[in-house]
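Case study.
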Amino acid sequence: MPNTFAAIDVGSNEVSMKIFEVSKKYGIKELDHVRHTIELGSDTYTNGKISHALVNELCQVLQSFTKKMREYQVEDYTACATSALREAVNNLHIIDQIKLTSKLKVSILSNSEQRFLLYKAVALKEQRFNQIIEHGTAIVDVGAGSIQISLFNKGSLITTQNIKLGSLRIREILSTMENQTTNFNNLLEEYITNDLQTFKDFFLSDINLRNIIAVGDNLNDLLRFKKHLEKTEDQKFHSESKESLDRSGFYSLYAKLLSRNSGQISNCLQMSKEQAYLLVPTAMIYYKMFEETKATTMWIPGVTLTDGLVVDYAQKKQKVNPTHDFTLDILNAARNIARRYHCNQSHIKNVEYIALTLFDSLTKLHGLNSRDRLLLQIAVILHNCGEYINLNAGAMNSYHIILSTEIIGLSHTERELIAYLVRFNIGSYPKYEDINNNFDKDTYIKISKLSAIFRIANSMDKSHKQKFSNISVNYRDGQLTIIGTTLEDTTLERGLFEKKAEFFEEVYGIRPQLKQRRS
Amino acid sequence: MSTTKINYHKPAYYSNRELSWIEFNYRVLSEARDKTLPLLERLKFLSITASNLDEFFMIRVASLKDMVNANYTKPDIAGLSPKEQLDQITIKTHELVTIQYNTFNRSFIPQLKQNNIQIITQYEDLDSSQSNYVDQYFQTDVYPVLTPMAVDSSRPFPLIRNKSLNIGALICDKKSSVAYDFATVQVPAVLPRVVQIPSSNPEVTTLILLEQIIEKNINKLFLNYDVVCAYPYRVMRNADLTIDEDEAADLLIEIQKQLKKRQWGEAIKLEVEDKMDKRLLKILRKELRIKEEDIYSVNGPLDLTFLMKIYGLDGFDHLKKPKYIPQPVKSLNHEEGLFTQIRRNDILLFHPYQTFDPVVEFVRQAAKDPNVLAIKQTLYRVSSHSPIIASLAEAAENGKQVSVLVELKARFDEENNIIWAKKLEKAGCHVIYGLVGLKTHSKITLVVRKEEDGIRRYVHLGTGNYNDSTAKLYTDMGLLTCSAPIGEDATAVFNMLSGYSEPLSWNKLTLAPLWLRDKFLELIKRETLHAKNGEKAHIIAKMNSLCDADIIAALYEASNAGVKIELIIRGICCLKVGVESVSENITVRSIVGNFLEHARIFYFYNSGYEEVYMGSADWMPRNLDKRVEILFPVEDENLQTEVKNILDIQLHDTVKAHILKPDGSYEKVDKRGKARLNSQEFFCEQAMKEAHDTPATHDRRTFEPIESDS
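After joint prediction, the assembly is written out as follows.
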């Protein structure tokens, strides 16, 4: 029998839940979709926190969601919140109140996790995804709070950037000026253009962008508006398929949209005025993307965060096979960051090789999973990016860079873990009490374990000459031996290895031996 | 076709809905006057015209009176102001009442007598032993529950309850005997109106009306007075239930309050016997502040609804139509569970020809089935001991998620609805007490079931209420299906009813008040377009009432473009037929028969890609704008053919069909050259034949060997 799964999204202007059936045989099937309009973002973006009344309403809606979950005998769920809650100062209290009233555990997604989930959903839903991203492609995700632009080329991710330029946020910021101008749309455009310019200068210059994949909260409304026009005015918009629009098609749709006020829009689409209000800024961001690039097609796969949550769940439960290698995307994103800071690529490659070989050989010893392996790998990739700033205190600088750089697909905690791993790659390892952080003890142990491996691996390429490009690991009868085949003099490495082995022994209770084979 | 654009909204192209309704009541009355019908059936129809008229006054006339009082002068669809409408209604209803009493006095009384039923309308006609019996009955049964009230300087005129039958009397003090006072006593509603009394001839059933018994003994109520005269009277008051829902914090409490208040509205109609004492009438007129034209002086007993009681008398089956027993549904068997059978095929139900049991069974099996997770249903009017309510309660007790939308605003049923809504809540059901500003009129049930390959949804959609009693009298259609797109839509319907935002899109269902009007207009326009392109175009629509101006205008436009439009409308029809360049291609027929025509069916030819819809909505503004209604398609080809056949039979009815004439009146079908066809009887016979033709092989007690022919 298929599993039933509920995905809940506490968004900036809507709380929604989708119920899914997930099975190997039938894949992912949507059973139910409920939505409730509630402008949490509007409170957060103007007052910094969410008012009592809205919190109550939110709790009530979530409580009614739990009823619905019982209705389908939901076995598992993920409930998450995005920027409205993330940025509200009272978010922890709200989450606690939700837990008390509905027993639902809501987790706040970091921006990068949120975008990654959406992107996963796009990849699963849009069969042509792999085909589309062979050419320059931007996934442009316009949320209520911010937009995320992820660039792909030749089948893989190049970069992803977040710009605090969401539809609701723009409206909130500019609403006070609405009465001072007769052409509000001009004001809007000026505001958006400025923010997009920086992005363009940095990232769009050396890529030939062909496709825009549009995702986000208001896209469905935009599609409905298109359908409405097609029906009532017999207008055709150029497109290759149902889920796409050509540049010219989008331009004429956009022109139609600008010619109406939000009252008219809400009338013809029979939606609330609040929702209609967000349509113009959303469309304008896409318009600007077309203007600034040579993109010819806009794809609208119509996915929501809840779709991403179920894809994530289904993959974890191994009910569906990913069509696209997402881990590779995360790694690519990390490598691009490393490249930006001119890290030594061959050194990274070698340490990566040693660290991962060790990790894979010692699974019985450390008991960690593939996700932890990925974190270790990213830590290795980014470990000396801080040297770009200052050769002294490189580790500390790397730590700061990692903390303030978004890496798609990683949660905030994971990123912090990586930052710590990098920071304590050198020097003495801190005691649990000395870590100025909210890691729990298990995470602390995990960092220690990864760090022990990382330190050993790093020590083995201290000279940055990749002397150990071929190693084998022998773990038998409580003896751990790393055998490296090289003709080079390895005194430096072996000396350092001994130091690091001490910490390894502290963590694992076993002292690794490094042996050199010269054949 | 003229090239100038015709204004299809011109008032001259429309009939007033109230006058059209009165026409409908005339059609019912014509059944009472149809000599080919058994006598008691005719009595029943007369009784129905009386209760129809009561409701019409309380709702429609009352609301027009409100408008006049508020100086509201906006003309209706046909260009009549409220005052003009009232004036015409008054003339028409006085005529109608006259025919009612002519029928009663000239036809029924003598014919009943011929058939050994004697109704004593005046107590003076009793013989002595009957007289004694009546007095005795008064002493033991009636007297204890009477509350006589006299009016004098110290006691004000009492409040006379809406629709209650009363006896007014003039009394004078035995000592002074100078002036007279007014006194009144209500004929108690707790006692039967029709009382059977002994007869000298045992073959004859003798009946007397309760008010006659009281009148006969009225002096026993006012012992220190002389009773000058005593006559019955009846008052009708403004009863329309209008609640400002934005202000009502708790809808439930508000309705309960309104229920009590309802009895004390303004008096809009006074019924008296034509021989009533003039002094008595004058007092009533003054105290009730009633206008001359609103007084109905009748030549016979007041409130003819008592005739229904006579219809119910035992032992006179030969004066009635044989009772029809709803037949089993041909495509359903008893061996397999309903869900299994629905999975195989969509199932069409046609009540009352076919039994309502599958619908009751649908909920009952769902309540017991361990795989059912949830049941959701909208309930508008249900019977008093509804098996559906019992099943829903049981389902909740069995741990299923049960959501029920109970429409508290269902006319005159509020009290009943509140009782069982509370019962359901107690059992653990999630009860929604209607929607603010909207009546939920749709009839939909959703069963969510967990099956081997995942969740499957079973849906029942209907044109009539979930009421097993009225399902024996109303003709309605229903569909049982587990089509995934309809199931998804059904889920979305209940999500919306629970207050969630509308779904991103609909698959098959169309809902009022948001989408239904547009959908109908679109469907009509599509036929218009086809006709304009020179293609064949045809619309058949069956419903209870048609009075929406936009729809009618669209039909006129379609007619003018050459669309053939056949309407089967039981009640109100504001559309006019035979108007040149407007409605020449439209015919309207009304079927008034033993069963109340209630199904709504819509057929569109659509260039050969025929579409058939059914639903809960009439083409009335209130259905399209102020109610939650559902229109659903019949897509299974076989079922489509069945529904088309049903429409076809009704279009060929020559017995119970009345054809709308250009002047707004109705005439029975001209039978010349046509085969006699009574559609309702035809459907009865068809259902019996189908049920008979498909015997379940498992029921047979003998085996049938197959042998070779040689």
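Observations recorded in class. Confidence is low (pLDDT under 50) at residues 243-251 of chain B. The longest strand of chain B covers residues 225-237. We will return to this complex in the next lecture.
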